[in-house]
Amino acid sequence: MIRKPKKPVTLADIAAEAQVTSMTVSRVINNSGYVHAETRERVLRVARAMNYRRNGLARGLKRQRTETVGLVIGDIANPFAAELTRGVREVLEARSYTLFICISEHTAKEDVQAFDSLADHRADGIIVATRASQTANERLEELIDSGVPVSLIGRDFHHPHADLVSADNLKGGYEATSHLIDAGHRRIGFIGVSLTQGLRLRRFQGYLEALKQHGLSVDEQMIVGGHEASDQMPGYSTEEMGYDGMVKLLELEQRPTAVFARNDFTALGALNAIKRAGLRIPDDIAIVGYDDVPLAQHTSPTLTTVRQPTREQGQCAAEFLLNRIEGDSEQERVERTFECELIIRESTAQKQADFPRSEAV
Amino acid sequence: MIRKPKKPVTLADIAAEAQVTSMTVSRVINNSGYVHAETRERVLRVARAMNYRRNGLARGLKRQRTETVGLVIGDIANPFAAELTRGVREVLEARSYTLFICISEHTAKEDVQAFDSLADHRADGIIVATRASQTANERLEELIDSGVPVSLIGRDFHHPHADLVSADNLKGGYEATSHLIDAGHRRIGFIGVSLTQGLRLRRFQGYLEALKQHGLSVDEQMIVGGHEASDQMPGYSTEEMGYDGMVKLLELEQRPTAVFARNDFTALGALNAIKRAGLRIPDDIAIVGYDDVPLAQHTSPTLTTVRQPTREQGQCAAEFLLNRIEGDSEQERVERTFECELIIRESTAQKQADFPRSEAV
DNA sequence: TCTCCGCCTGTTATCGTTAACTTATTCAGC
DNA sequence: GCTGAATAAGTTAACGATAACAGGCGGAGA
Hints:
The structure is a homodimer. By secondary structure, chain A is of the alpha/beta class. Chain A has helices at residues 11-18, 22-30, 37-49, 56-63, 79-94, 108-120, 134-145, 169-182, 202-213, 238-251, 264-276, 310-326; strands at residues 68-73, 98-103, 125-128, 150-153, 162-167, 188-193, 223-225, 258-261, 286-288, 305-307, 335-338, 341-343. Chain A has a 6-stranded parallel sheet with strand order 2-1-3-4-5-11, sandwiched between helices. In chain A, strands 7-6-8-9 form a 4-stranded parallel sheet, with helices on both faces. The model of chain A is unreliable at 1-5, 228-236 and 351-361 (pLDDT under 50). At the A-B interface, helix 4, helix 5, strand 2, helix 6 and helix 10 of A face helix 4, helix 5, strand 2, helix 6 and helix 10 of B.
């Protein structure tokens, strides 16, 4: 009679039951080495009957790799992170690695905790997609120095042995802003950063750059909505930031005729604030978002935005990482920047009927 | 000279350097047992200098627990999952467990993979928040039978040794629908399920129940938007489902005067479809969502919806799980159902000015 | 002086798996 | 019949950490 013990079944248990040694069982389980067909059958039967699950700890300890990759993201519930994850997963699954995700809620402390957890549990490599911070960068450097393969997505941090994937958000921000300028706008607000803090945000730099290039001056009053706390960031509820920011802009004596929002959710908040105020989009105020979340094509008006190839970034980061894991962890760093694409929709259309209006998908 | 080897530093390495045995180093690292203050200092100094990271595999193997919990969710990029995760994390962190998240993208196969990965890597327990499926349920049962502590959130699966946390979505759906009926609506559509598949969705059952209780008949034409494929579900892009579903409803000869959407994103899609068609909300069509995502209070009109205490569910599931982990894994199952709350906003308001309109937050 | 207990450290064995090596057995080819 | 390759197992020793036990030492109390 085969028992179903509370203590997890081990190779030795199966071996005893099947009248072989645990080495043979191991060979069967891993499909390696020579095992007689009959023996294999018998062992498999017993293993199944006993509901065997292999012990990844022991296995990993002995083999010195776990076939596991960690992904650290700051914010779940964010279409960007979701799409990134999807890309990462696709590649990992194809190469039969397991993905464990750690969330850091955008705080440096939790970032570090996530790194440590993954390193302690001997993930074979780590993909980091959180925003950079002093503390976290230091720990990251230690990890990389000690040989942990790391691949970074859109993170402002450089290390000779960590690969880097990013989107050209500087250019994206530049193009979004230029688009507004080309449409004749001269008073263009930015929602979603504080002036000081925003300098680390490429899309905001692109905004500044575009203004400068076109000979427009920067009006500090028109930059709204940043959180001043440096190590704490909000979750996905950035439409609140967009709403509040827009309200502030509308209260200005000379309100902007266009706004560039840090991301689509912020843009959505702003969009609703504008509607509430009884103004029309884009006639009274034009608006551009960033990220091209799925919702952006379902709002009314539909949202002009900048698309970055998110899934591709995830795939690329995963590929870089796997190459490093399976190659030399200290090999030269690889870097790849993806182009962004301005997607023009109704929220910045030149001539525009009133909203709501009838039909037209 | 202390080297920084490519091979990870072990206790033995530190021990050699600090002229003690690895047992002493272990005691220092874990702050357990007696260690002379001077020795402790010396060991710590060496450990830091060598950039020691403990090996969770070896540690876990020996101690037979990893202080790690796995969370399986179907869909990242979903405010519901995010909030749930937040609740789970809060509790785990307070009791110093590490959380690893696995995404299953709503397929049974990936669900099973996630369970296996977590079980293989000897997570101390698993929280499951994905939708039930035949295959996955079977594997889940095996795991629980073999002693893995499991706690379920809103999953249609029962087992004597797995705790269960859920929201009363039947009642939530009932109340949402009743709210519409009370407001005088008689033709009420449902967006987001197929009639057959929807029977597993409590909030849809609540809808049916409410119609029945109020003597209204179910019109199959008014139930739209389900995916027929049973093991595959879409990601977050359910606003598309909402949009398309609403378009179908609007094409009916007798279109509904109100719709209940399976979740807020679906509702948002529907909302935009209605606006596109030049109809007014709630005057022409009233609409109710589900989940109360943050965005729901920032749309125009703001969205009537059903709030479920999401974070609390996460916390509760985590607490149940930890009790099971630290107690008896085969103890009697605990169950807890949270009440939902109907949040009435503009999209179902009785009398309503046109949108967009001026002011009023 | 002797005993006992609190401190500090070391020794041993083990968690479950597998790499590397060893031992048989079989059988084709000369 | 002999050689050597292919097949089919078993044996041993780790992987890195720690629980359990075993001293040794010093000092308080009898």
